[in-house]
Specification:
Radius of gyration: 50 Å
Structural class: mainly alpha
Mean pLDDT: 79
Distance between the termini: 144 Å
Number of helices: 3
Order of helices and strands: HHH
Helix content: over 70%
């Protein structure tokens, strides 16, 4: 008969061996689970990065399109403003030309009604000739031409131009004060 001690010892060794095997299997299963979790986490992180990158690209694209549309709108508004200013300038020139024409007609009518002899006739002729020349200048040069002429006078004679401006400002100040 077998020694009961040896049998118990064998059974203990078998249990230890079985426990070690179970422990090893548990470690292996845990390690596999951890590797699989790591792989799943890495895959999820990669997919999240891809989605984030795609979202970033889409946002950049949409932002670029919005910028282009805003730029286009601003350009259109600028062009419309320039057209409006150009149209206003042309209308002002047309009005100045019409005013010049009317000044010339007024001078012609005035010349017909004023005396033509003596000192009064000479004075009326000078006045009507001056008005006719002024009307012709305004009609031909228009407002834009007159602005260039004033600019040239100021460039060529800056000190008298400044004195004139100060004098007009002083007079306006006196008139406004009273």
């Amino acid at each position: 008969m077998a020694n009961p001690m040896h049998t118990a010892e064998r059974k203990g060794n078998q249990m230890d061996k079985g426990g070690n095997d179970a422990m090893q299997k548990a470690k292996d299963v845990g390690s596999d689970a951890m590797h699989k979790a790591k792989d799943v986490g890495s895959d999820a992180l990669g997919k999240a990065k891809d989605v984030g990158s795609n979202a970033m690209e889409t946002a950049k694209e949409i932002g670029g399109q919005a910028f282009d549309k805003a730029k286009s709108a601003a350009t259109s508004v600028g062009e419309m403003a320039l057209e409006g200013a150009s149209t206003a300038g042309h209308k002002a020139d047309d009005l100045a030309a019409a005013a010049g024409h009317q000044i010339r007609e007024f001078a012609d009518n005035m010349g017909k009604r004023m005396p033509s002899e003596g000192m009064a006739g000479t004075a009326s002729k000078v006045v009507t000739d001056t008005l006719k020349e002024s009307g012709r200048y305004i009609e031909q040069a228009k407002l834009s031409g007159m602005a260039q002429d004033v600019e040239n006078v100021v460039k060529n004679h800056p000190i008298p131009a400044l004195l004139l401006v100060f004098g007009v400002g002083f007079c306006l100040g006196r008139v406004m004060k009273d």
